[in-house]
Structure formats: C-alpha cells, structure tokens
Design a protein that fits this description.
The protein has helices at residues 4-14, 19-26, 30-37, 45-54, 64-77. The chain is mostly helical.
Amino acid sequence: MEPLPEIVKKHRRMSGLSQAELAKLAGVGKTVVFDLEHGKLSIRFDTLTKILTVLNIRIDFDSPLLARMRAETASTQNPSA
C-alpha cells in the first residue's frame, strides 16, 4: 500500500491544486498540507479528514472484529442466507 503522504501529494497534483489552494479549500493552514505531504505524524484526525474530503479520498477501517460484526449483522438481517 502506498504511504499516505504520497497518496495526498498525487491526488493534489492530479487535481491541479497547489498546497496553498488545497489548504484554503480544506480550511486549514498551508503548512498542514506541507507537513502531511512530508510525513509528519502529529496531524489531527479532523484536520486530516478535511484535506481528504477535498481530494475525495475515503478512509476505510477494517479489522477481524469489524468483519465478524458485519457478518453477524448480515446474518440477522437476512436469516435465510
């Protein structure tokens, strides 16, 4: 899987946005975009989601527990399956 900083940078460039333009659209400081693209680890989650939303990047959480919960929910909603 590609690292998050590279994903953000590629999406931003393919969208034709500068770091400053992306920051303005996301409502964050331009240094936040710079920091994110350079791998800073201490960016707040809500700030990250603002940037990802502008770039139309979705976060998908997955784990064995979530998979089991989905399977259990599906079996209770469709008992004939």
